[in-house]
Design a protein that fits this description.
Elements (H helix, E strand, L loop, with lengths): L2 H19 L24 E7 L4 H5 L6 H7 L4 E3 L2 E2 L5 H10 L5 H4 L9 E6 L3 E5 L10 H7 L4 E5 L37 H4 L4 H4 E3 L2 H5 L9 E5 L18 H18 L1 H6 E7 L36 E5 L6 E3 L3 E2 H12 L27
Parallel strand pairs: 1-8, 1-9, 2-11, 3-12, 6-7, 6-8
Antiparallel strand pairs: 2-10, 4-5, 9-10
Helix pairs in contact: 4-12
Length: 375
């Protein structure tokens, strides 16, 4: 069976499912609406998120970790969420989950080798676009579009991106799937490029930029966005080992990169005033090693097994640093990438999107903000 025939069959099958469950083609609510910040959330105004690649909890945070700066030095400054999980395999859907609450489909689980347009057949609860493909239509909301509508600023900082808002042509092959010397940028680790509302915006080139812009932006509170979403290149995020440029890669290169960039963030006026830094991994090492899940989001019509052989992306852990967290502490509360999205929406006073709406999903509370006493 050829590829076009398989795609037609997939679309037809999804159409049948859509008819059976009575989905609608509406979007998932107004991005401009706001809600009251929960009383247990401190007055955080600037959040920094860093993802490393394909690292299970034990490898990153265990006693033999090859990243001592992360697992010891930074660990001593923040709270370790030791029951934090990825939401899918492979990489791409985990990044998308963090900024939209959308679950994966087959193309996303295959890391979107083709930068294909998402063919949407409708919307099913909780706020899931039903269909197939990678680049969501403008009607599918995301955290950045919520923030822009609410007058909040955000930026994606992508190492080796070079040209701002860089992505393949629609329905073209993604040539960034493999690293090249001098260009180790990966579109699949840049979730903003999978939302038409972002890529078609005239401000995309100002909002999704090369990592080199971060140093200048950190110089003042006024130039630091409310959300700074930071992605190292394929060597510095630990994905490749060894790297195409001869460096070791893996956690060794992760640690060296963090030792350069994290001190800049922690010393910045915005972080010092009201900042929070979250460091996590997109997924565990592989579907075979760990496809476990937490938090009840379950399978979707687009992907019965989000983790390919299981329900999730495995246990990865996350570290949270802020003035409102105590160093060297931990939380055993189950969290995942949808929890992170919901927690950011709590910080910014925004309604929950997609799987961030899941009943019983944990959001960051006083177990994370454990150096904070609400009035």
């Amino acid at each position: 069976m050829n590829r076009s025939h398989r795609l037609r069959l997939a679309v037809v099958s999804l159409a049948v499912v859509a008819a059976a469950v009575g989905v609608t083609a509406s979007s998932t609510g107004s991005a401009a609406s706001t809600v009251t910040r929960p009383a247990y959330v401190p007055a955080i105004k600037h959040v920094f998120v860093i993802n490393i690649e394909n690292k299970g909890y034990d490898a990153t945070w265990g006693p033999t970790s090859a990243a001592p700066y992360l697992s010891q030095t930074l660990r001593s400054k923040g709270v370790l969420l030791n029951t934090y999980y990825g939401t899918a395999h492979n990489s791409q859907p985990n990044y998308v989950a963090q900024i939209s609450g959308q679950g994966p489909n087959l193309q996303m689980q295959l890391d979107c080798q083709l930068y294909s347009q998402f063919v949407q057949l409708g919307t099913v609860a909780p706020g899931q676009a039903l269909g197939t493909g990678c680049v969501f239509p403008a009607s599918v909301p995301s955290l950045p579009t919520q923030m822009s509508a609410a007058g909040l600023s955000w930026k994606g900082y992508m190492e080796d991106m070079g040209t701002p808002c860089r992505h393949p042509a629609l329905n073209a092959q993604d040539t960034t799937q493999s690293a090249h010397v001098g260009d180790q940028y990966a579109v699949r680790h840049n979730p903003f490029m999978y939302f038409t509302a972002i890529t078609s915006s005239p401000t995309c080139a100002q909002d999704v930029v090369d990592l080199s812009a971060l140093t200048t932006d950190l110089a003042a509170v006024s130039t630091t966005p409310n959300l700074s979403y930071i992605t190292p290149n394929l060597c510095n995020d630990g994905h490749d080992a060894p790297c195409v440029d001869g460096r070791p890669g893996g956690l060794a290169s992760v640690d060296a990169w963090l030792a350069v960039w994290v001190p800049k963030i922690l010393a910045s006026p915005a972080y010092q005033a009201d900042g929070m830094l979250v460091i996590t991994a997109d997924e565990a090492d592989s579907p075979v090693s760990d496809a476990s899940a937490c938090c009840g989001e379950g399978p979707s019509l687009n992907a019965p097994l989000p983790g390919i052989v299981g329900l999730g992306g495995g246990r990865v852990g996350a570290l949270v640093l802020s003035h409102w967290t105590s160093g060297g502490t931990w939380s055993t509360t189950p969290y995942n990438h949808y929890s992170l999205l919901a927690s950011l929406e709590d910080v910014y006073g925004l309604p929950y999107l997609g799987y961030a709406q899941t009943s019983g999903l944990n959001r960051f509370g006083l177990d994370v903000y454990n150096n904070w006493k609400p009035a």
